[in-house]
Each structure stands twice: as structure tokens, then as C-alpha cells.
Design goal:
single chain; about 525 residues; alpha/beta; Peroxisomal Thiolase, Chain A, domain 1; 9-stranded mixed sheet; two-stranded antiparallel sheet; transmembrane helix; EC 2.3.1.-; fatty acid elongase activity; FAE1_typ3_polyketide_synth
């Protein structure tokens, strides 16, 4: 689940108010961001220091060097000590410096046209499945206002009447998505499956035995000593978590490749009950998946598209409300679905607040950090009544991949981060064309930017996603060249039609819609003005 599903949250009672984020920003997250910043700076400062030493040595007169050599001959102990210190320092630097991680390429799965679902077909099938008239009307309103087109995809089992959510069909869906993306990835990168040393697969709601990662190992006959991981139950932000895990593994294992596969499985997770708060995934979630090839090989820098700069992960699971706000359970009739708590909006806002507060010092230019720090000091030391300063993230990033979980979240992040329509175009169009593909949506968005020819050398990309638990995770990439779209891009046959004008219909003035939308707007507004600590 994610922030986009919040439109279905129940109305927040009047006695439950959202937190005052202007007074609740925790200083430790600001300190954490600066800790990351200083850690990177200390490593970078060694390089110019060494360059200065070499330049000064080059300017020294030969006679002075000769005198220095004669002096050192009579101070052998000093020479040995100095040499030992230099060798030790160089060894520590080489062993502890983070190895660069490159994104060689990625591939997004595009389902066949036969899996497309029109709204009328969706509602007709829902009626045949026994949904009440009230729930059918609720789903119709969700579809009309979701931002989805009638070209999104649902699995083959859901096209059958009656649907067949069997284990076999769920496996078939997983195989078609994962293998479809991996086949393309191996084909146009030229990397042999045997060369892959690390495999990370994330799928939140479908975790069979053997695991999805084992299915990939078996299909492509990956080597026996591969480091494979299968992440389950981690929601729509698990794609960034998988990238972070792969990065950590590439710091340990030299000269190898890591493959990250992000997907979600719908077949066995379709909700057939009549509780409205559990119906949203049926309307928003669609078939999709992505495979990403990462490398720590220096030789791959020349052909790689991006370098991974930062990953910032925020987890609010220690709080009981955050842990329970998105919860898979059975309804009163024993039908399994995912329920949304009335506290979801406040919890999502708190996670976002923490994440961007930590990320800011790592990515914002000095001018923005100076304004933020000056306002922080003024409010903290002098208790000055200064209007909170909202950092300009457009100075830190050229491109934004906001998880395509729902239209309201995208709209509000655009408004409160002061973004332009072009900055959120990829998120809106991905939601329109492919729906909410869960953790893989940020890769469809990046593919959209590439298909438009917008990613240039030196550009910075911010991927941000929300997930159950509750989590908010960010990844920052740096373009190493002018990026061309990958072969067989999911957008290649339709990119000329985009962007499309979306019908911005206001949400229905029902208690469920109006209250949930109002809560979402309030939270995001407060979150993005919470950089200053009272």
C-alpha cells in the first residue's frame, strides 16, 4: 500500500486532529542528514589535498629537493615513520571508501494487449463476482477519478468469469512479468546470467515456496554461489529498499553485477468482499514489473546510464499506529484484503517529513542550506517568529520520480514542493498509462523521461516512494551521459501521444471522498512546511 491509496481512508473524526508538524520536526533527522553530508565531504577533501601536495612538489627547486634528500638520509627513523603513516592512511582510504555503483540499464515489462481492461468491462466483471450495488458505484467513482486510463492491465486470471485466483495462475503471472523484464534486460545489455553475483527480488503480497528469486535462479541457471534475496511484505517502497540492499552487497563483493527485480502480484490478492476501505487496490493496482542491472565494475562506467549517489530510508514501524495503518486482514465474511487506518494520512506525512529532512543536507545547494540553517538558528536560539522556509528542490534535482500511487499525492507534492507540471508529468502519465504498478512505478516513470529525451549528462533524478510498515524511501541518481531510451521501452509505441490532458474531475462530495481528500491535502501541506524546528 502507499500514499495513493489514501483516497479510500475513512473520514477522520473531528476529535482526531493531525499533528502540528511545525512543532514536531525532530532535530535528530537534520543532524543525520548533515552526518551523511560530512561523511562524504571528508572523503572528497582528501583528493584536492593530495593534488595540492603534488603541485607544490612540482614547483620546488631541484636544489631544495637535493637538500631535503640529504636531510632525510640523516633522519631515517623519521622517514620510516612518515612512510608507514602514509602507507597506512592510503590503505585505510582504499579499503573504506565506498565503491561507485552504476546503473547499467533497466527494463520494464509491458503486458500483452489482451490483458487491457476497460472500465465497463471491469465493472461488469465486478458485478458478476457478487459485489453489492453500493460497492459497484463506489468502484465506478474511484475509477473515474483515479487518473487511470482504460489501457491498463490486469492478470489473465481476472479476465476469466468467474475469476481463477489459483496458485498456478499467480505463479504464471509472476513468471510472465519477471521473465519478460529479465529477458529484455539480458538481451540488450549483453550480460550473461552466469555473470550476475547478486539477485534481489521484491514482491509484497505473493511469496510462494520456492521463492520468486529461486524461480529466477532456476529459469536462467544462475551460478551456485549467487547471493540471492527475496523481500516480501514491504509495500510500494520496496523497490528502493532492494536497490539499497544490492548497493550494500556490491560494496562487499568486487567486480560483479547485481540484478534487482521489482514487481507485485495481483492474481491472489484481488479483494472479493464489500468493505469499501479494502476495494481501492482492485481499482488502482495493475500488472507491471521492472528489472534493473547494477554494477561495481569500473569498466562499466563508460556504458552505464546512471550512478547511485544516495539512498535515504525512513521506517516508522516502531510506532504501533504506523505499523497497523496498512494491514492485511480478513473482513467480517472471512475475505482477505488490505485495510487502511484512519491514521494513515498523518503517518504518511510524518514519514515524508522525516525523509526529506534527512535528505535535504545531502542534495540541496549551499545557498538553500544556508537559508534553512539561518532560519533554524533564528527560531531555535531567539524564538523568532519567522515564516517557515520551504527549500527549493528544483535546485537539487532536474527530474522527479514520485511513486504513482494516486493522483492526489502527486498533485499535492507538486503544489507544496513548488514543482512545475513538467516535473510531475512522468508520474501522472505513468499512472494514466500503466496504473499503480507498486514498487516498479518509479522505473516506468524514469523510462518515460528517457523516451522523451529529457535526461542529459549531469542531471540528477530523485525517486521517492511510500510503503506499508510505514516507510518512505528515496534514491538519488546522477546521469553519466545523455540518456537514450532502452530498446523495447514500454513507451515506444505510445510516447508520441503523451502527455495527455487529464480530466481533473473533483472528488465526489461524499463523506468518504471529501474527508479523505481534505485530510491528505492538510497533511502534505503541513509536511512541506515543517523544515524549521520550533
Amino acid at each position: 500500500m502507499n500514499g495513493g491509496d489514501a483516497a479510500a481512508a475513512a473520514a477522520t473524526p473531528s476529535h482526531r486532529r493531525l499533528p502540528d508538524f511545525l512543532q514536531s520536526v525532530n532535530l535528530k533527522y537534520v543532524k543525520l542528514g548533515y552526518h551523511y553530508l560530512i561523511t562524504h565531504l571528508l572523503t572528497l577533501l582528501l583528493l584536492p589535498l593530495m593534488a595540492v601536495i603534488v603541485l607544490e612538489a612540482g614547483r620546488t627547486d631541484p636544489d631544495d629537493l637535493r637538500q631535503l634528500w640529504l636531510h632525510l638520509q640523516y633522519n631515517l627513523v623519521s622517514v620510516l615513520v612518515l612512510s608507514a603513516v602514509l602507507v597506512f592512511g592510503a590503505t585505510v582510504y582504499v579499503l573504506t571508501r565506498p565503491r561507485p555503483v552504476y546503473l547499467v540499464d533497466f527494463a520494464c515489462y509491458k503486458p500483452p494487449d489482451k490483458l487491457k481492461v476497460r472500465f465497463d468491462e471491469f465493472l461488469h466483471h465486478s458485478k458478476l463476482c457478487g459485489f453489492s450495488d453500493d460497492c459497484l458505484e463506489f468502484q465506478r467513482k474511484i475509477l473515474e477519478r483515479s487518473g487511470l486510463s482504460e489501457e491498463t492491465y490486469v492478470p489473465e486470471a481476472m479476465h476469466l468469469i468467474p475469476p481463477e485466483p489459483t496458485m498456478a495462475n499467480a505463479r504464471a503471472e509472476a513468471e510472465s512479468v519477471m521473465f519478460g523484464a529479465l529477458d529484455k534486460l539480458f538481451k540488450f545489455t549483453g550480460v550473461k546470467p552466469k555473470d550476475v553475483g547478486v539477485l534481489v527480488v521484491n514482491c509484497s503480497l505473493f511469496n510462494p515456496t520456492p521463492s520468486l528469486s529461486a524461480m529466477i535462479v532456476n529459469k536462467y541457471k544462475l551460478r551456485g554461489n549467487i547471493k540471492s534475496f527475496n523481500l516480501g511484505g514491504m509495500g510500494c517502497s520496496a523497490g528502493v529498499i532492494a536497490v539499497d540492499l544490492a548497493r550494500d552487497m556490491l560494496q562487499v563483493h568486487r567486480n560483479t553485477y547485481a540484478v534487482v527485480v521489482s514487481t507485485e502480484n495481483i492474481t491472489q490478492n484481488w479483494y472479493f468482499g464489500n468493505r469499501k476501505s479494502m476495494l481501492i487496490p482492485n481499482c488502482l493496482f495493475r500488472v507491471g514489473g521492472a528489472a534493473v542491472l547494477l554494477s561495481n565494475r569500473g569498466a562499466d562506467r563508460r556504458r552505464a546510464k546512471y550512478a547511485l549517489k544516495h539512498v535515504v530510508r525512513t521506517h516508522k514501524g516502531a510506532d504501533n499506529k504506523a505499523f497497523n495503518c496498512v494491514y492485511q486482514e480478513q473482513d467480517d465474511e472471512g475475505k482477505t484484503g488490505v485495510s487502511l487506518s484512519k491514521d494513515l494520512m498523518a503517518i504518511a506525512g510524518g514519514a515524508l517529513k522525516t525523509n526529506i529532512t534527512t535528505l535535504g543536507p545531502l542534495v540541496l545547494p549551499f545557498s538553500e542550506q544556508l537559508l534553512f540553517f539561518a532560519t533554524l538558528v533564528a527560531k531555535k536560539l531567539f524564538n523568532a517568529k519567522i515564516k517557515p522556509y520551504i527549500p527549493d528542490f528544483k535546485l537539487a534535482f532536474e527530474h522527479f520520480c514520485i511513486h504513482a500511487g494516486g493522483r492526489a499525492v502527486i498533485d499535492e507534492l507538486e503544489k507544496n514542493l513548488q514543482l512545475q507540471p513538467v516535473h510531475v508529468e512522468a508520474s501522472r502519465m505513468t499512472l494514466h498509462r500503466f496504473g499503480n504498478t507498486s514498487s516498479s512505478s518509479i522505473w516506468y516513470e524514469l523510462a518515460y523521461m528517457e523516451a522523451k529525451g529529457r535526461v542529459r549528462r549531469g542531471h540528477r533524478i530523485w525517486q521517492i516512494a511510500f510503503g506499508s510498515g510505514f516507510k518512505c524511501n528515496s534514491a538519488v541518481w546522477h546521469a553519466l551521459r545523455n540518456v537514450k531510451p532502452s530498446p523495447e521501452s514500454p513507451w515506444e509505441d505510445c510516447i508520441d501521444r503523451y502527455p495527455v490532458e487529464l480530466d481533473m474531475i473533483a472528488l465526489e462530495e461524499s463523506p468518504d471522498f471529501a474527508a479523505a481528500n481534505s485530510a491528505l491535502y492538510s497533511v502534505i501541506t503541513l509536511v512541506c512546511t515543517s523544515w524549521i524546528i520550533r
